[in-house]
Structure formats: C-alpha cells, structure tokens
Design brief:
Elements lengths: L23 E4 L2 E4 L8 E8 L10 E7 L5 H9 L4 E6 L3 E7 L2 E2 L5 E6 L2 E2 L14 E7 L22 H9 L6 E3 L2 E3 L8 H12 L21 H9 L19 H11 L17 H12 L18 H16 L1
Length: about 325
C-alpha cells in the first residue's frame, strides 16, 4: 500500500517581511546611509482543531504576521512547517491539504477550511487573507454536515441529478472548480481527462506510502501535477497505457475505460444476473461494465451504455460519490 506522495513543483512561496536598513555605501570620502523602511505587517489567527477526535498537538492555535497579498495556505505552511503537512499541488487549481500534524484524511473524515467561522468557498491557496482573519482547519469525523452550503458559481447549470454529488465532492476538495474571474465554476458539461479520473480514483483509495516508481509513460513528465497519481495507479496495476508507451493524460476518458479501471480497483465482478448492454462490444470491457452497473456505480441508458462517450464532470462527481459510498460499505 502507498502513502500519498507529495507532488513536487511550484509550491506557494512564503511571503516574508523584508527590511532594508543599516547598509552603508561609500563614494570616495562620502558615506550615505539608506533610510530604513518597514513593511506594514498584518496579523491572522491559525486554528487547527479536531473536536471529535483526540490527537497529539491539537488543538493548535497561533497568531502569524504576514504581508498584504498572502494566501491562507502560505500562513498554514509558515505556522506548522512543511514536515507537518501532507498536500498535493495542482498548478491550475492550487493546493489540496490532505494531512496536518500527522492527522490524515480518510474515506469519511476530512480537513475542512473555514474563514471567520464560515465554510470557505475557495481553497486555502486561493483565499487572500485579510487583517484579523481567523483561519480554521477543522477535522470532521464520520462525514461532513455542511456541504449543502457549498456552491460553484455555475451551480445552476448543473443537472438536478448531479447537484448533491457536485456540492459534496466540491466541499470535500475531491473535485476542484475552475477559476473564472473572482469565482470558481464547475463546468459540468466539460469532459473528464484521464489524468483527472486517475487522481480521483487514487484519492478515494487512500494509498499509504512513500516513493513510487515512475510509471515510465513518455508523456507523463516527472513534475506534472498528476504524475504521482499515475505512478501509484500504474504500480497497483489499476491503469495501463497505449502501445506507443503513452498515457494520454489530457485525453477524455471514455465510459468503458472508466468502468474497467473502477472494476479493477475495487475488485468488482459480475454475477450471472448482472445487466448487459447491447452496444458494448469491446471484449476487455464487457465484464467490467456489467460489474459496475450491478454495483450501482455506473448506469446505462434504457438498455445501452454508450461505452465510447466521454464522462462529463458532473457524471464524474456522481460516480465519485457512489464510489465513496461503496468504499465506506
């Protein structure tokens, strides 16, 4: 089993106060002293709390100073130190905090980010801290009871059957929104890439460990945000590549390929009474599709499965929620 590997790459840079002063510059017999300048410092309180579970070092409360423009993740990193955080970094969506002070998330327990006692609609790395803010990371045990308040900027464009799943997956940070001006949209009809699907799958399975051998795909750079997820999934034989040794991370994942990976990951097999679909002809996918349909994870369309269709982001949210519920059972 694998412990989640920290992604390398462009981590948020800490903003530190700088002072120019006491520097002398000599020109012949004249010495000029630069005037000392000081940056106005702001303050915020960091609270790391686990109200329903005792854990060493918690609760953790401290006040930090920062310069204008710092984000909440910067301050958390400064307050506890990088060795006490487990997180992944997506260059487009930002940082996802997975563990703090040795207390990691599980399939049902999560770190939630609040600002001034209200659930934050954006992640910690996207929230620009204001003077006097109280930044709280709260560990919720046995589920999350405030997800109904979460909404993406385009929530009204999401199909009714996907509303609950997108809100819950968004609140838990499993599926991030896409930046759009000052807000984040879900883009419900957008496609799900193979890289995005692999990240969701690995995150749901919560592997434990350290280093993982590179998958060896020629189109998966070592520093790509999805590299560690692909590496773990490949090492566990959950995914495969193409004949040319590529993974095609940015290609859309089809419904039949998603079904095959899910069946393999969750060790699903179809019974004799499992449903079958007339439009599924790929030999490698027939049993997997019947198995995920029987488990209620993916469904068909009046006798068809549409195996070659790409999974939309709202469909991904529903599948992810069903997998989370299946995993908890």
């Amino acid at each position: 089993m694998y412990m989640k590997k920290w992604l390398s790459g462009s981590l948020a840079t800490l903003l530190l106060a700088t002072t120019l002063g006491g520097t002398s510059i000599a020109f012949a017999e004249t010495t000029e002293l630069q005037e000392s300048t000081e940056t106005e410092m702001l303050t915020a309180e960091i609270q790391i709390i686990s109200p329903n579970l005792e854990h060493e070092g918690l609760p953790f409360v401290t006040t930090v100073e920062f310069e204008e423009g710092a984000n909440a993740f910067d301050l958390l990193l400064e307050a506890v130190g990088e060795d006490e955080l487990e997180y992944t970094v997506d260059p487009e969506y930002g940082v996802f905090v997975e563990g703090i002070l040795g207390l990691d998330g599980t399939a049902s327990d999560w770190w939630m980010f609040n600002v001034n006692d209200e659930f934050s609609m954006v992640g910690a790395s996207s929230y620009i801290v204001e003077d006097g803010d109280v930044l709280e990371w709260l560990y919720h045990v046995d589920g999350f009871d405030g997800w109904e308040e979460f909404a993406f900027a385009d929530q009204d464009l999401i199909a009714e059957w996907a509303q609950e799943a997108t809100q819950l997956m968004g609140a838990l940070g499993l599926i991030e929104g896409k930046p759009s001006g000052d807000d984040f949209v879900f883009d419900p009809k957008g496609i799900t890439t193979r890289a995005e699907f692999t990240k969701i799958l690995v995150s749901l399975l919560f592997f434990e460990t350290a280093e993982t051998q590179a998958a060896g795909f020629t189109d998966v750079p070592e520093n790509a945000w999805y590299a560690s997820y692909v590496n773990i999934a490949k090492s566990e034989n959950l995914i495969g590549g193409y004949a040319d040794n590529t993974f095609k991370p940015n290609a859309a994942i089809t419904r039949q390929d998603a079904a095959v990976i899910i069946a393999r990951a969750f060790e699903l097999s179809a019974s004799a009474s499992a449903p079958s679909f007339g439009d599924v002809t790929a030999t490698y996918a027939v049993d997997a599709i019947r198995a995920v349909a029987e488990a209620g994870i993916m469904q068909g369309y009046s006798g068809s499965f549409r195996p070659q269709d790409a999974i939309t982001r709202e469909e991904l949210a529903v599948v992810a929620l069903r997998l989370l519920e299946y995993w908890e059972e």
